[in-house]
Amino acid sequence: MTIKRKYLKHGDIVEIHLPLTNSFAYGKLVDPRKIRDPFEYPFFIRIYNFTCTEHIVDVSKINRQLLLAPFWLQGQSVAVTKANWKILANEPVDLHEEFIPDTKREFPIGSANPEKWTYVKRFNTIPISTEYAQIKHLDYSSGKNIEIVPFLVQLEILKQKGKDIKKEYGLKDWLEELYYKNFINMPVYVDLPEKLKEKLAC
């Protein structure tokens, strides 16, 4: 049974439709304003390495291993009303779920041929210069639009299988092209050593 609420809350477990495979992915929302070391930012989502071809009722069946590093959402206010995310439950957020990952940032931002690479900790505004090899496994600092989340999930699932989403299904618009370029050559997240997940390499 889903929760009939049109907005997201800290601790919500959500179901996300994956149109390419007509299946469902699952994640948990974390409001950084409500964690033990709070800061002002939009919701983060923890996407799980778990999909199902049918709607699930019991959220305890969800494998809580992460598919991707937690990232912040753009457009979270329309996740339910426009993107049709389903709220399945609301749970407490454990301390380990409050962890905010390091992220990378190119300079100049948006450049196809960056002059240098930096990383930021907990989305601090102060970038730290480093070599790309040290941070290639980190996600970009930019938020992810609600509409692109299913694409990112499907891209990562196919990467686990050694497949390329562009070759399998094609890309439908400029947004998918952008995220494909950024994510296709990143290491598969679930295959990273635990010490590198969400952390700087050095």
Characterization of the model:
- With 202 residues, this protein is of the alpha+beta class.
- It has one domain (12-191).
- The chain is 15% helix and 24% strand.
- It contains 4 helices and 9 strands, in the order ββββββββαβααα.
- The chain has a 6-stranded mixed β-sheet with strand order 5-1-2-3-4-9.
- 27% of the residues are buried.
- The model has no long low-confidence stretch (mean pLDDT 91).
* Structural class assignment: alpha+beta
Order of strands in the sheet with most strands: 5-1-2-3-4-9
**What's the overall average pLDDT, rounded?**
91
Low-confidence parts, pLDDT < 50 over ≥5 residues?
A: none
Radius of gyration: 17 Å
- Provide the number of structural domains: 1
Instruction: Write the H/E string, N to C.
Output: EEEEEEEEHEHHH
Calculate the terminal CA-CA distance, rounded to whole Å.
45 Å
Features:
4 helices; three-stranded antiparallel beta sheet; globular; alpha+beta; 202 residues; six-stranded mixed beta sheet; 9 strands
Helices and strands in order:
Elements: E1 12-18, E2 23-30, E3 44-52, E4 71-74, E5 86-90, E6 103-107, E7 116-120, E8 128-130, H1 132-135, E9 144-145, H2 149-160, H3 165-169, H4 174-183
Parallel strand pairs: 4-9
Antiparallel strand pairs: 1-2, 1-5, 2-3, 3-4, 6-7, 7-8
Helix pairs in contact: 2-4
Quick rundown:
This protein is of the alpha+beta class and 202 residues long. The protein contains four helices and nine strands. The strands form two sheets. It has a six-stranded mixed β-sheet with strand order 5-1-2-3-4-9. A three-stranded antiparallel β-sheet has the order 6-7-8.
